Amino acid sequence: MRVNMPVTQKEHHLQEGAFIVTTTDLQGVITFANEEFIRISGFSEAELVGQPHNLIRHPDMPPAAFEDLWRTVKSGKPWQGMVKNRCKNGDFYWVDANVTPIEEKGQTVGYVSIRSKPTQNQIAEAERMYVRARAGQPMEDPEPKIWLPFPEMGLHNRVWTAAAVVVGIFCLAAVINFTTFMNTRAEVTAIRTIVSTQASNLPEG
Asked: pLDDT, tens digit, for every residue of 1-21?
Protein backbone atom coordinates (compact mmCIF):
# COMPACT_ATOMS: atom_id res chain seq x y z
CA MET A 1 0.00 0.00 0.00
CA ARG A 2 1.24 3.46 -0.87
CA VAL A 3 2.44 5.44 2.16
CA ASN A 4 2.48 9.21 1.74
CA MET A 5 4.67 11.06 4.21
CA PRO A 6 5.25 13.26 6.12
CA VAL A 7 2.02 14.07 7.97
CA THR A 8 0.98 16.76 10.42
CA GLN A 9 -1.82 17.02 12.96
CA LYS A 10 -3.42 20.05 11.28
CA GLU A 11 -6.93 19.45 9.99
CA HIS A 12 -8.68 21.22 7.12
CA HIS A 13 -12.41 21.24 6.36
CA LEU A 14 -14.50 21.31 3.24
CA GLN A 15 -16.42 24.51 2.72
CA GLU A 16 -20.06 24.38 3.82
CA GLY A 17 -22.21 23.04 1.01
CA ALA A 18 -19.20 22.23 -1.16
CA PHE A 19 -18.48 18.89 -2.79
CA ILE A 20 -15.29 17.28 -4.02
CA VAL A 21 -15.81 15.63 -7.39
CA THR A 22 -13.28 13.45 -9.19
CA THR A 23 -13.39 10.81 -11.88
CA THR A 24 -10.89 8.03 -12.47
CA ASP A 25 -10.29 5.28 -14.97
CA LEU A 26 -10.61 1.61 -14.03
CA GLN A 27 -7.14 1.62 -12.46
CA GLY A 28 -7.94 4.59 -10.21
CA VAL A 29 -5.98 7.17 -12.21
CA ILE A 30 -7.52 10.64 -11.89
CA THR A 31 -9.12 11.95 -15.08
CA PHE A 32 -10.95 14.97 -13.61
CA ALA A 33 -10.64 17.06 -10.44
CA ASN A 34 -12.94 19.94 -9.48
CA GLU A 35 -11.92 23.24 -7.84
CA GLU A 36 -12.80 22.18 -4.27
CA PHE A 37 -10.54 19.15 -4.57
CA ILE A 38 -7.69 21.31 -5.86
CA ARG A 39 -8.23 23.86 -3.06
CA ILE A 40 -8.30 21.49 -0.10
CA SER A 41 -5.68 19.01 -1.32
CA GLY A 42 -3.10 21.69 -2.06
CA PHE A 43 -2.18 20.06 -5.37
CA SER A 44 -2.58 21.81 -8.71
CA GLU A 45 -4.81 20.35 -11.40
CA ALA A 46 -1.73 19.35 -13.37
CA GLU A 47 -0.35 17.51 -10.32
CA LEU A 48 -3.60 15.58 -9.85
CA VAL A 49 -4.85 14.61 -13.30
CA GLY A 50 -3.01 11.58 -14.61
CA GLN A 51 -1.92 10.47 -11.12
CA PRO A 52 -3.34 7.56 -9.11
CA HIS A 53 -6.00 8.62 -6.61
CA ASN A 54 -3.92 7.17 -3.77
CA LEU A 55 -1.68 10.24 -4.19
CA ILE A 56 -3.77 11.72 -1.35
CA ARG A 57 -4.06 8.56 0.75
CA HIS A 58 -3.36 9.20 4.44
CA PRO A 59 -1.26 6.60 6.27
CA ASP A 60 -3.90 6.41 9.02
CA MET A 61 -6.30 4.77 6.56
CA PRO A 62 -6.28 0.97 6.97
CA PRO A 63 -5.84 -1.18 3.84
CA ALA A 64 -9.09 -3.01 4.71
CA ALA A 65 -11.12 0.13 3.95
CA PHE A 66 -9.78 0.39 0.40
CA GLU A 67 -10.04 -3.35 -0.13
CA ASP A 68 -13.73 -3.04 0.69
CA LEU A 69 -14.06 -0.03 -1.62
CA TRP A 70 -12.50 -1.80 -4.62
CA ARG A 71 -14.35 -5.05 -4.00
CA THR A 72 -17.65 -3.14 -3.95
CA VAL A 73 -17.19 -0.93 -7.02
CA LYS A 74 -15.70 -3.74 -9.10
CA SER A 75 -18.93 -5.67 -8.47
CA GLY A 76 -20.83 -2.76 -10.04
CA LYS A 77 -22.19 -1.36 -6.77
CA PRO A 78 -21.68 2.11 -5.23
CA TRP A 79 -19.50 2.39 -2.13
CA GLN A 80 -19.99 4.83 0.72
CA GLY A 81 -17.62 5.44 3.61
CA MET A 82 -15.49 7.82 5.60
CA VAL A 83 -12.02 8.64 4.25
CA LYS A 84 -9.14 10.55 5.81
CA ASN A 85 -7.04 12.19 3.09
CA ARG A 86 -3.59 13.76 3.15
CA CYS A 87 -2.94 17.24 1.79
CA LYS A 88 0.16 17.98 -0.25
CA ASN A 89 1.87 19.57 2.78
CA GLY A 90 1.01 16.68 5.14
CA ASP A 91 -2.12 18.19 6.70
CA PHE A 92 -5.33 16.17 6.55
CA TYR A 93 -9.07 16.38 5.93
CA TRP A 94 -12.00 13.99 6.35
CA VAL A 95 -14.66 13.34 3.72
CA ASP A 96 -17.88 11.37 3.54
CA ALA A 97 -17.20 9.65 0.21
CA ASN A 98 -19.44 7.99 -2.33
CA VAL A 99 -17.81 6.14 -5.22
CA THR A 100 -19.99 4.95 -8.10
CA PRO A 101 -19.11 3.03 -11.27
CA ILE A 102 -19.53 4.92 -14.57
CA GLU A 103 -21.20 2.74 -17.18
CA GLU A 104 -21.31 3.09 -20.93
CA LYS A 105 -23.23 0.59 -23.06
CA GLY A 106 -23.46 -1.79 -20.11
CA GLN A 107 -19.74 -1.70 -19.37
CA THR A 108 -17.94 -0.01 -16.48
CA VAL A 109 -15.48 2.51 -17.91
CA GLY A 110 -14.44 4.35 -14.76
CA TYR A 111 -15.57 5.69 -11.41
CA VAL A 112 -16.92 8.98 -10.10
CA SER A 113 -16.30 10.01 -6.52
CA ILE A 114 -18.39 12.67 -4.76
CA ARG A 115 -17.28 13.70 -1.28
CA SER A 116 -18.98 15.95 1.23
CA LYS A 117 -18.22 17.40 4.64
CA PRO A 118 -18.84 14.85 7.42
CA THR A 119 -20.13 15.50 10.93
CA GLN A 120 -17.93 15.23 14.00
CA ASN A 121 -19.87 12.14 15.06
CA GLN A 122 -19.10 10.48 11.72
CA ILE A 123 -15.41 11.29 12.12
CA ALA A 124 -15.30 9.95 15.68
CA GLU A 125 -16.97 6.69 14.62
CA ALA A 126 -14.63 6.30 11.64
CA GLU A 127 -11.56 6.88 13.81
CA ARG A 128 -12.77 4.20 16.23
CA MET A 129 -13.33 1.73 13.40
CA TYR A 130 -10.00 2.42 11.72
CA VAL A 131 -8.05 2.07 14.98
CA ARG A 132 -9.57 -1.41 15.29
CA ALA A 133 -8.70 -2.22 11.68
CA ARG A 134 -5.07 -1.12 12.06
CA ALA A 135 -4.84 -3.39 15.11
CA GLY A 136 -5.96 -6.33 12.98
CA GLN A 137 -9.47 -6.44 14.44
CA PRO A 138 -12.79 -6.26 12.55
CA MET A 139 -13.79 -2.66 11.86
CA GLU A 140 -17.31 -3.31 13.09
CA ASP A 141 -18.01 -4.49 16.63
CA PRO A 142 -18.93 -8.18 16.70
CA GLU A 143 -22.62 -9.00 16.95
CA PRO A 144 -23.66 -9.53 20.55
CA LYS A 145 -24.36 -13.17 21.32
CA ILE A 146 -27.91 -14.08 22.28
CA TRP A 147 -28.09 -15.67 25.73
CA LEU A 148 -29.80 -19.06 25.73
CA PRO A 149 -30.89 -20.71 28.97
CA PHE A 150 -29.61 -24.25 29.56
CA PRO A 151 -27.30 -24.29 26.49
CA GLU A 152 -26.33 -27.90 27.14
CA MET A 153 -29.94 -29.03 26.54
CA GLY A 154 -31.51 -29.67 23.17
CA LEU A 155 -34.14 -27.31 21.79
CA HIS A 156 -37.02 -29.63 22.77
CA ASN A 157 -35.88 -29.92 26.39
CA ARG A 158 -35.16 -26.17 26.60
CA VAL A 159 -38.71 -25.37 25.47
CA TRP A 160 -40.29 -27.67 28.09
CA THR A 161 -37.96 -26.43 30.82
CA ALA A 162 -38.72 -22.82 29.97
CA ALA A 163 -42.46 -23.60 29.99
CA ALA A 164 -42.14 -25.20 33.42
CA VAL A 165 -40.30 -22.13 34.71
CA VAL A 166 -43.05 -19.84 33.38
CA VAL A 167 -45.77 -21.98 34.97
CA GLY A 168 -43.84 -21.98 38.23
CA ILE A 169 -43.61 -18.18 38.17
CA PHE A 170 -47.37 -17.89 37.61
CA CYS A 171 -48.04 -20.32 40.48
CA LEU A 172 -45.74 -18.38 42.78
CA ALA A 173 -47.44 -15.12 41.83
CA ALA A 174 -50.85 -16.71 42.53
CA VAL A 175 -49.70 -17.91 45.98
CA ILE A 176 -48.34 -14.45 46.80
CA ASN A 177 -51.58 -12.79 45.70
CA PHE A 178 -53.69 -15.27 47.67
CA THR A 179 -51.56 -14.78 50.79
CA THR A 180 -51.80 -11.02 50.45
CA PHE A 181 -55.56 -11.30 50.00
CA MET A 182 -55.97 -13.48 53.13
CA ASN A 183 -53.76 -11.17 55.17
CA THR A 184 -55.81 -8.22 54.03
CA ARG A 185 -59.06 -9.98 55.00
CA ALA A 186 -57.63 -10.77 58.44
CA GLU A 187 -56.58 -7.16 58.92
CA VAL A 188 -60.03 -5.91 57.89
CA THR A 189 -61.71 -8.36 60.30
CA ALA A 190 -59.44 -7.24 63.13
CA ILE A 191 -60.20 -3.57 62.42
CA ARG A 192 -63.92 -4.27 62.39
CA THR A 193 -63.66 -6.09 65.74
CA ILE A 194 -61.77 -3.17 67.30
CA VAL A 195 -64.28 -0.63 65.97
CA SER A 196 -67.21 -2.75 67.18
CA THR A 197 -65.68 -3.14 70.64
CA GLN A 198 -65.01 0.58 70.98
CA ALA A 199 -68.52 1.38 69.78
CA SER A 200 -70.07 -0.91 72.42
CA ASN A 201 -68.05 0.81 75.15
CA LEU A 202 -69.40 4.26 74.32
CA PRO A 203 -71.92 5.63 76.88
CA GLU A 204 -75.52 5.53 75.77
CA GLY A 205 -77.53 8.68 75.17
From this structure: 688 999 999 999 999 899 999
